[in-house]
Amino acid sequence: MKRIFFQIFIIILASNMLAFGNQKDSLNSFSSKDEAIQKINQLLELSETKRNRNPEKSIEFADSALKIAQEIESYEVQYKAEFSIGFANYKKNDFRNALIHLENSLSLSKKAGLPNGEALALNRIGNTYQLLGQNEEALEKYMLAMTINKVIDNKQEIARTLTNLGSIYRLFGNYELAINKQLEALGIYEEIQNKEGIAWSALNIARLFKFMKNYQKSLEYVNKSLSIYQKVEDEQGPSNGVTLCLKEKGNIYYEMGNLDKAVEYSIRVLEINKGTGNMLGISHSLTSLGKIYFEHRDFNKAYDYLSRANAINDSLNNDIRKASILRYLGKIYLSRGETSKAREYLIQGLEFAEKQNLKEEIKESYFALSELYQKTNNPQKALDYFKMYTVLKEELDIQKINELELQFEFGKKQRLLEFEQKQKEAEQMAKLQKQKIFTWLFVAGFLFMIILAYVIFMSYQRKKKTNIILTKHRDKIARQNTIITDSIEYAKRIQSALFPQEKFLKNVLSEYFIYMKPKNIVSGDFYWVSEKDDKVIITVSDCTGHGVPGAFMSMLGIAFLNEIVNKSKNIQANEILEQLRDNIIDSLHQEYGVRGSKDGMDMALCVIDKKTLKMQYSGAYNSVFVIRQSEIHEIKADKMPIGIHAVKVNKGFVNQEFDLEKNDVLYLFSDGYVDQFGGAKGSKFKQRSFKELLVKISEKSMDDQKKEIKSNMNQWQGDYSQLDDMMIMGVRI
To answer: What is the tens place of the pLDDT at every residue in 654-668?
Structure first.
């Protein structure tokens, strides 16, 4: 009822405003400039309410406001009117007119000295360039907007700009920087409780997880975003947010290989876009359907959808999906044997990708051209393009983990050495000065007391200055340590985001506990759980090292496990470990006999059939325990790591089977707990004591087991420093 009254009110007000806007001599209708500004603001509010549903009406209201603002020569309201006209044109996909009016708004904001208006216009100009595929220009505008927003400390606009920057870095293939920007934006939106901002950030994070092939995380974030946008839509009417989330779900299912679901969501989005007359959205939906049917190998349907999308893009002078569309059309011609046409489309697609700096698209174009030249008996060109594909793939996939860690450790050690050297110099200086004072005291005696007092005073002053210098260096190091600690805390947040979330674990495992105690802030130990084809895959892993290097290795392990399990048709525990070992060796460029290439991980991995309770187990150094009615069963691991072994080993991991029963308790763990020094004699806790502890607590609830494990370690460790990361996972079947 409230909404109906509101709509009636808007219609009446709109009629009055339009009548008002059609007056020939509008300025003379007002008794003062303030009254004119009040009317302008009313028109702009109407423009905003019409922006999403009826952009043409929105432009009419904003244009009326602009005419009055020009007559009263007020830059303060002129820039708002120009922005509203530009934004409405942006909504109707008229990007040429959008840029004209947004640039006018930017210029007027500068003249009026309004940095908020400048930043707002720069962000929207950047959005427009991005939709036109001019990503370098978009990045430039976002950076300018960020500079202004930081100066005026506008948190909401800082967050908006961070999400824009994150979306550009994602297109450029810099996923680490992209997810940092999006997480930072999400933190700000949550702090200021901006629902739509939280939804938009969550959607962007979902896209990043999709690119990293972590589809469970991607669906988790896109569902979070969709839930918020649906609530906003219920309160305020239809919004693009719901459509964008549905579109993204279709893309995720496409990446997962669930093509029927992908078609379902893409058609839903296509119908929504047809209903709103959103031609750019229609083009995007047609492109998605073309790609899906290409994967279905229905090349005729794929060609139909992609050709229609290409025609719409050409009519809109829009190049944002051009590279991808041309590449798929080229691959369709290649499948038909029309190699000349295929070459033409693939080359054009590569040119668009390079122009827009779309690294992923450039990579895929290289691969497609390699296939083309292989089929046309041009092995040299095929090899050249494949090499270019491989180099770019490594550039996008490999993070400079070791280099970053070495820089961090080297910088820390160098700062400590500098401090210690300055301290020694100061102490030596003070020592020499004291010797000098005592020498003068001995030689001069009582007659030189006054001189001695003066010298002592000067010595004190010098010592005071030295202490000030030392204090400054100490404070500088303290600040630097704070910065480093803050960075590692932020790294912990990113690492935690990759772990399976509690909601998922409760759904898959039901009764479980996870005891995780990193030696430093971030951990080299990690746990990972997945579910596929009625099988639950559980692993606990201990990566080489701890702290930052261990955490980077754990993130690499999680990424590879997601990729391996998502691609595997038949889940076998030993095959997962062998594939993971190959991936680790390849990604870290490990070689036998090469010093410093022994990084890797120890792991226990279980695959449990939910129907039969038959468990497969394969392990790299890490065993698993099964406790049944207070009796412990140990399934031992292979004595070789995930990575390069000290001695070259040419054998695979063994796949062991074990029949589980209901109420069995399964324990996976790293060696940090059993290797911890403590107790009265300062010895290791050892595995025998660990087994006795687990048998003792196995009948208790999982929460109580975790408390017992934690309490026991606190008592055992006492004042001894922690030796390594600790990880124990218990699951009741």
So the answer is: 999 999 999 999 999
What span, in angstroms and rounded, lies between the C-alpha atoms of 106 and 80?
10
Helix, strand, coil shares of the chain, percent, nearest 5, are 70, 10, 20
Tell me the CA distances in angstroms from 622 to 601, 604, 633, one per residue in order: 10, 5, 14
Q: What pLDDT score was predicted for residue 413?
A: 40
Secondary structure, 3-state, 499-520: CCCHHHHHHHHCEEEEEEECCC
pLDDT value at residue 384: 87
Residue 598 has a CB neighbour count (10 Å cut-off) of 15
Give the integer Cα–Cα distance in Å for 604 and 529: 12
Gyration radius of the chain over CA positions: 33
pTM, 2 dp: 0.45
Q: Which residue has the higher pLDDT, 455 or 550?
A: 550
- How far lies 284's CA from each of 87, 305, 308, 487, 512, in Å? 21, 10, 10, 38, 43
Structure tokens at 420: 């210690």
Distance, CA of 427 to CA of 429 (rounded, Å)? 5
Q: What are phi and psi of 614, to 5 degrees?
A: -80, 130
Q: What percent of the chain has pLDDT over 70?
A: 82
Pairing status of strand 525-532 against strand 535-543: antiparallel
The partner residues of 540 in beta bridges, in order of sequence, read 527, 604
CA count, 13 A, side-chain hemisphere, 262 = 20
Tell me what the pLDDT averaged over the chain comes to.
Answer: 82
Q: How far apart are CA 559 and CA 536, in angstroms?
A: 17
pLDDT score at 410: 34
Report yes or no: 116 and 76 within 8 Å, Cβ to Cβ: no
Q: State yes or no: pLDDT of 316 exceeds 70.
A: yes
**Residues 319/320/322/328 CA torsion (nearest 10 deg):** -170
Question: CA 690 to CA 670: how far, in whole Å?
Answer: 12
